[in-house]
Amino acid sequence: MLYEIAQEFPHEMIFQEGGPCISIYQPTHRHAPDNKQDPVVFKKLLQSVEEDLIQLDDVQQTEGYMEPFWRLLDDRSFWNKTQDGLAILSNAQRCIIYHLGSPVMAEATVSDYFDIRPLIANFQASDSFYLLGLTAKTFALYEGNQNGVQEIELPDTIPRTIEEALGEEYGETFLNQRTSGRAEGSARFYSHGGKKEEADQELERFFRVVDREVYDFLKQNQKKPLILVSLTEHHSIFRKISNNPNLLETGVKSSYEALNLKELWEHAWKIIAGNHEKRTTLLLEEFKKAQASFLGSTDIIQIGRAVFEKRIKTMFVEENMGIGGHLNLSTGEVMLTGRDNKLVGNLIDQLIYLTLLEGGEVVVLPSFKMPGESGVAAIYRF
What we know:
Blueprint: E1 4-5, E2 21-27, H1 38-55, H2 59-73, H3 76-79, E3 85-90, E4 95-100, E5 107-111, H4 117-124, E6 129-134, E7 139-145, E8 148-151, H5 162-166, E9 175-179, E10 187-191, H6 195-217, E11 226-230, H7 232-241, E12 252-253, H8 261-292, E13 296-297, H9 300-308, E14 312-318, E15 324-327, E16 334-338, H10 347-357, E17 361-365, E18 376-380
Parallel strand pairs: 1-4, 6-11, 11-12, 14-17
Antiparallel strand pairs: 2-3, 2-5, 3-4, 6-7, 7-8, 9-10, 13-18, 14-18, 15-16
């Protein structure tokens, strides 16, 4: 196999040095007969890639670079299992493929750095997440992303029902026996609360067990948000006792048992998309404050220097902006060479690469949301 399917982003290959770096994007179709045109579009993109490789004086190596693509073009099973978009990144060492849950513009570039802005835009708006379906008697855990949700098969060691979670404590009546002094051996029973109070106490203990078990099970992926799916009356109880920092404030107020997988995803995706929009707004407000304090800028020269000095906290880039040029990695000087010739290299792609390499965040925005008109803006660490 000359190519591999990737799931996580960013992929380690993005940070491998050495070009040329080939980036291919195209919209695809899930079903026939529409998907019959996808290989045709792909072939046209490959012709563009081949022409660019030849212009870069890689004539002898062009055949080796192109081989994974020609193999892919002939892979009928691959083209019968696509989604709504395709992203392919390839260099001399590897070729990775992303199936995307939303369409992308058809384009192919050959440069010193990968064009990963469409991928960033796709993943920043489609972060994977977890759903916790909870009732008074049982729970289930789901994992989801922009494509849908599926239930997670939990190990047998995790209790799934209130009976399993509470064990012998389940169903206790909380009665206290006292001996009356009026008659030897007689007994009097006092209840420490009615049946509703006892049920509420059991429910809270069950929810505590669920919260602990879910947190421990997901501790390796604690950055992913968790959405609660439960009846309205259970939300306040669970949130009061939960110690999970990734539990979102907004949840789905419905019994998860009454929803199919598609309905679960539709409810959850509205929440995830809303959270992304809210976070983007907060980041842009943070940029305005940073700019007023000289800790943010839209000046490409200043941003290049900050990238060189590893001072970028958050970088905003315009989704379709191209700036010909490069950052001198010895001096930190930005060298602009024009915006039209894609073969001279895209400065923005280089800045994205270096920012991610040093742990900075990159946010891709449409032009109408971008601060300034340079196509790039940044918040500095200091």
